[in-house]
Specification:
heterodimer; A: 153 residues; alpha+beta; Jelly Rolls; 4-stranded antiparallel beta sheet; 4 helices; B: 276 residues; alpha/beta; Elongation Factor Tu (Ef-tu), domain 3; Rossmann fold; 2 domains; 7-stranded mixed beta sheet; 6-stranded antiparallel beta sheet; 6 helices
């Protein structure tokens, strides 16, 4: 049976991270499963964990009273779910709903923030992984907002 | 086109079939009236289609059929809208094929990543057909396709066929879903982040709006794909299509003759030029 450190090291987000760091962050991780239709995160709720998706898909949604829930983006295997755990006030800014059965690693946010603060070099190494993902998502969201596949684009 | 469609004078061909793809897009199959082969163009090349009395438009080949010409046309102007109104049995003038196509020879033995946005899937569909016809000659085939909405996807039945195959890995996303859509939502470049590729041995071909192609190219460069292995297809105001009139000239390049497919490294600086 593989250890948690071995399991999380195989995830694309953490692949290549030095083993001592893997061993450290593995102490904050656990395996989780979400059934289709269940909410993994809810807008406004405390961002107590973040997830690395292994299998299955998650829809990031925003709800409005007039329009109902609208899917902004879907995430899949290899993706990270959530960055609000990094930034005060640590509240989710969207809903995250499992579209099918989702297997993920859940990391305790307080645990991980504490370890990053205790070992800034490890924290920096992790931020070097988060930032490109967040930059790509921001860039993609901008392009999505341009509606460039429309007839008048 | 080997069997006598010409470069400067249009040849009349019959519309053999019309498939409505979306509210504003159709796929036309054009054939000689006597049934003889039209002659193939290369994937990535284009023809000038002429609905008589209206004007010409440059339309990429969307299949590598050897017997007929297949073009998918989106109605965005007078000429393309007239093409969209054609019915089986109608005539259309054709000149071509023109330009440099996709680097299929260079892709042999390599993994292929296709990035298509909107109507940009049409020129890449001919690549998919060519690869599937000679499947063993190529490595892994990954296709990332982004459409505006589920109803604006092209080739829906064919997409489902491809998704059911084990020798092609296709991911489809839409900018905005609807109540019936259970697939992915997000911009097409998001599909590239975890694309199962070996950057050192893959060739990337991107077709769609230029902003999309720039973003896709840079993302693949960021994953380690050498710039010489990234190709984009450009479109400008093509008129003569033979490199004579200059309407499609950008800097030293004629889109019609030197392109429309270019190595990204050759054109990346030109893409940002707003006026020449």
């Amino acid at each position: 049976m593989k250890s948690m450190a071995e399991l999380i090291h195989a995830h694309p987000f953490l692949a290549g991270l030095p083993e001592p760091y893997i061993a450290t962050v593995a102490g904050c991780a656990r395996n989780v499963v979400f059934e289709a239709g269940s909410y993994i995160i809810r807008e406004g709720h405390s961002a107590t964990e973040f997830h690395l998706l292994r299998d299955g898909h998650v829809a990031l949604e925003l709800y409005s009273p007039r329009g109902g829930s609208k899917v902004l983006q879907t995430l899949g295997p290899g993706d990270i779910l959530g960055a609000s755990w990094l930034v005060p006030p640590y509240r989710w800014t969207s809903d995250g709903r499992a579209l099918d059965r989702v297997h993920a690693f859940a990391f305790d946010a307080v645990c991980l923030r504490g370890k990053c603060e205790a070992d800034p070099a490890m924290g920096y190494a992790l931020m070097q992984r988060f930032l490109p993902v967040l930059m790509q998502r921001m860039s993609a969201a901008r392009l999505q907002a341009m509606d460039m596949f429309g007839a008048q684009a | 086109m080997s069997a006598a469609v010409t470069q400067l004078a249009p040849v009349p061909l019959r519309v053999a079939a019309v498939v409505r793809e979306t509210a504003d897009s159709v796929t036309l199959t054009l054939a000689r009236p006597d049934g003889s082969a039209v002659g193939p163009g290369a994937p990535g090349q284009f023809n000038m289609l002429y609905p008589f009395g209206i004007g010409e438009a440059a339309i990429s080949l969307s299949s590598d059929s050897a017997e007929t010409l297949v073009h998918t046309v989106r109605g965005v102007g007078a000429v393309s809208e007239a093409l969209g109104r054609l019915r089986p049995g109608d005539w259309v003038g054709v000149r071509g094929p023109f330009g440099a196509g996709w680097p299929l020879e260079a892709a042999r033995g390599r993994d292929i990543v296709l990035v298509a946005g909107g109507i940009g899937l049409a020129p890449l569909r001919s690549v998919i057909h060519a690869v599937l016809r000679d499947r063993a000659a190529f490595g892994r085939l990954f296709v990332a396709y982004g459409a505006r909405t589920p109803r604006e996807r092209l080739y829906v039945a064919e997409l489902e066929d491809w998704q059911a195959r084990s020798d092609i890995d296709i991911a489809v996303t839409v900018d905005a879903g609807d109540a019936h859509w259970s697939g992915r939502v997000g911009f097409v470049t998001a599909l590239l982040a975890n694309a199962p590729i070996d950057p050192a041995r893959c060739i990337v071909m991107a077709c769609g709006p230029e902003v999309m192609m720039r973003a896709a190219a840079r993302q693949m460069l960021g994953r380690g794909v050498p710039i010489e292995n990234v190709y984009v297809s450009l479109e400008r105001n093509m008129k003569c299509a033979a490199g004579l009139c200059g309407h499609c000239q950008v800097g030293p390049l004629f889109m019609c003759k030197d392109g429309p497919v270019f190595p990204f490294g050759r054109v990346q600086d030109l893409l940002g030029v707003r006026e020449i």
